[in-house]
Specification:
16% of the residues lie in helices and 31% in strands. The chain is α+β, with helices and mostly antiparallel strands. It folds into three domains: 238 residues, Thrombin, subunit H, CATH 2.40.10.120; 94 residues, Pdz3 Domain (Roll); 92 residues, Pdz3 Domain (Roll). A six-stranded antiparallel beta barrel has the order 8-9-10-13-12-11. Strands 2-3-4-7-6-5 form a six-stranded antiparallel barrel. Strands 15, 16, 17, 18, 19 and 20 form a six-stranded antiparallel sheet that branches. The longest helix is centred in the C-terminal third of the chain and has 15 residues. The protein is elongated and about 90 Å long. The two termini are 50 Å apart.
């Protein structure tokens, strides 16, 4: 079985370059027989008499133009988390951290794209799962705190909102059902912070089932994806989004997967209104009918979903479905595989009833089954925003705590240095995202000298929501100064 990893769950540098495409054509071949008339006697070929171009000659897609139109709507996303039990993430440590606990802080770097001028952004659910702070950086360098509107873990999509105040560029959504194997596509994302990296490839397969994390098939492509590319738009030659890049193979550098955009478009209304999506679900263990199973079990249907497990006290069991039944249709729609069952019922609302036609030991049986709700996590938008707001109240708008310099420790600092020592940093606060860590000495805030913790607090209180605090800091371990810009939340 191929092992898969989420592109956003690690940090590996890969720089991809736009590939050139050569159109098919033809050329003259040398002739070794009788040459015929001398060249001077050969009539000139006029444009009107020239042979038409071969039918297989095509113009190459202009992905340079596609990238130029789309790059303004592609964003970089950073998601920081305090609680880490539910996030299989890479730990980010900073010099001077007082704790060796690897669960002290998590931070993800990923991508997304704007779909509405008012600031709606799509990315992957696994990128922001459990995040306490989500920060979005636009292509023009502006940084915003994002709110989580809603998630659908069943298809790994999240909808974010930023308040940019002015209309933002968007990328139009296409139709993933029109995607063809072999057509050219490009992806634009921000792997490990390399904003607007463009890669080109082809659609390798459609309707590819990847584990159990999606209710439908995915688009497989060989357009290069790197760790950290999650949430990037996959574009066709017309510049339309046909998918959201979501996973890559751990065993190959040219196998990536994208969520079909039509799946996402279908759930957007629910994400906007309720913050989560309700998918129909039937509790059954299924596998596809194969020639081997048909022979061993003497099954008549050539295609269908073979029932392996029927959990007790669930709707399917109450409807009388048994192991070795073969589901051949639901509500009259033919079922060719176990994936078809998942796909069909996920489009239905929980509580609705479907007619399931079964092949059972040579007979056709139809039973009504009331659909349950797919057991995926509900929206964590409210919890994430509430936790982040509580932390801001505890540690101030910058998300850090400082203390006066210890006289004894001051002997190890440059002569005459004044300031306030950073002793604690909110793992998901704005200061953490600016690479502020415990142990640093803050000597100035926006060029205002700091002599004590009280002066630091006063300087921060004078800032307004949305301001940037440029902290001049001294790192005793490196014995050097640096300026770290910290963006305050745009709300009180």
């Amino acid at each position: 079985m191929k092992r898969l990893i989420w592109p956003a769950l690690g940090l590996t540098a890969t720089v991809a370059f736009l590939l050139g495409i050569v159109a098919a054509g033809s050329r003259s071949l040398p002739f070794f027989g009788h040459r015929g008339p001398a060249p001077s006697a050969t009539p000139a070929v006029t444009p009107s008499s020239a042979a038409p171009a071969p039918a297989h000659s095509i113009a190459p897609p202009d992905f340079a133009a596609v990238a130029a139109r789309a790059e303004g709507a592609v964003v970089s996303i950073r998601a920081a988390t305090r609680a880490t039990a539910d996030r299989p993430s890479a730990h980010v440590r900073y010099p001077g951290d007082p704790s060796d606990d690897p669960a002290a802080a998590h931070e993800e770097s990923a991508s997304g794209f704007v779909i509405d001028p008012a600031g709606e952004i799509l990315t992957n659910e696994h990128v922001i799962k459990g995040a306490d702070r989500i920060t979005v950086t636009l292509s023009d360098g502006r940084v915003f705190r994002a709110s989580l509107v809603g998630v659908d873990a069943a298809i790994d999509v999240a909808l974010l909102q930023i308040d940019a105040q002015d209309p933002l560029p968007v990328i139009p959504l296409g139709r993933s059902e029109d995607v063809r194997v072999g057509e050219w596509v490009c992806a634009i994302g921000s792997p490990i912070g390399y904003a607007n990296s463009v890669t080109v490839g082809v659609v390798s397969s459609v309707d590819r089932k990847v584990g159990q994390w999606s209710v439908d098939g995915t688009i497989q492509t060989d357009a290069a994806m790197s760790l950290g590319s999650s949430g990037s738009p996959l574009l066709n030659s017309a510049g339309e989004v046909i998918g959201i890049t979501s996973a890559i193979s751990k065993q190959s550098a040219n196998i990536g997967f994208a969520i079909p955009i039509s799946q996402v478009a279908a759930v957007l209304p629910q994400l906007r209104e309720w913050g989560h999506v309700s998918h129909g679900y039937v509790s059954l263990g299924l596998t596809s009918v194969t020639p081997e199973l048909r022979s061993a079990l003497h099954l008549d249907p050539q295609h269908g979903a073979l029932v392996q497990d029927v959990p007790a006290d669930r709707a399917a069991a109450r409807a009388g479905i048994r192991p070795y039944d073969v589901i051949v249709s639901i509500d009259g729609a033919a079922i060719a595989s176990d994936s078809d069952v998942l796909r069909f019922v996920s489009l239905k609302h929980p509580g609705s009833t479907v007619a399931v036609q079964l092949w059972r030991d040579g007979s056709d049986v139809t039973v009504p089954v009331e659909l349950e709700e797919r057991p995926v996590a509900a929206s964590n938008a409210a919890g994430a925003n509430a936790r982040a707001a509580a932390a801001a109240q505890e540690q101030g708008p910058l998300g850090l705590t400082v203390r006066d310099l210890d006289p004894a420790a001051g002997k190890q600092l440059p002569s005459g240095m004044t300031g306030a020592r950073v002793v604690d940093v909110d793992a998901a606060g704005p200061a953490r995202l600016a690479r502020v860590h415990p142990g640093l000495i803050v000597t100035e805030v926006n060029r205002q000298a700091i002599h004590s913790a009280a002066e630091f607090d006063a300087a921060v209180r004078a800032l307004r929501p949305g301001d940037v605090a440029a902290l001049m800091v001294y790192d005793p371990s490196a014995r050097e100064y640096s300026i770290l810009p910290v963006l305050l939340d745009p709300h009180s």
